[in-house]
Amino acid sequence: MKKTTNWLNLLKTLNFAPFKRDFMTPKQIKKTDNNSLIFTWSDGNISELTYKKLRDSCPCANCSGESVILHSVKPQKIFLETPGRYDLKDIQPVGNYAITLVWGDNHNTGIFSWDLLYRLAKLAEALEAQAKQKQKDHDHHHDHNHPGNHDH
């Protein structure tokens, strides 16, 4: 479960990230066949977030914990293996600033603001680019370790 923790910690640091802070709104949200949502943003960017990433980033107090004056309430780990956890049943608008996602285990208390979704999408892109670069570096390093491959 380390990946989820890293993801949430990274997400929290994003509150201070130097991303363009214009208020982005999705022009379209579309379900895909491979368990993800595709967002078309008002700035023309298109991003994809998997159901797993969305559920693991749920901002409700039960999932992400909450800060109460003088102490923190930790999220309850019991929920992590619930059947239907990553099965998205419905998307409900919250005013004109957010959506609530209804999951197969009936969880529906996380309010995903447009800003949070946009930051999640940017973070997912950054992590993907980082992984690709690591793979590229690994492949490049691997090539140099083969004798007889000197004609560069």
What's this entry about, in short?
The protein has one domain (2-141): NE0471 N-terminal domain-like (2-Layer Sandwich), CATH 3.30.2020.30.
How would you describe the overall organization of this protein?
There is one protein chain. This protein is α+β, with helices and mostly antiparallel strands. The chain has 4 helices and 8 strands. The protein has a 3-stranded antiparallel sheet. β7 (98-103) and β8 (111-113) form a beta hairpin. The protein is globular. Residues 16-20 have low confidence and may be disordered.
Q: Under CATH, the topology is which?
A: NE0471 N-terminal domain-like
Domain unit count? 1
Order of the strands making up the biggest sheet: 1-2-3
Instruction: Provide the gyration radius in Å.
Output: 19 Å
Say how many strands there are.
8
CATH class: Alpha Beta
N- and C-termini, Cα separation: 42 Å
The whole-number mean of residue pLDDT values reads: 80
Beta-strand percentage range: 25-35%
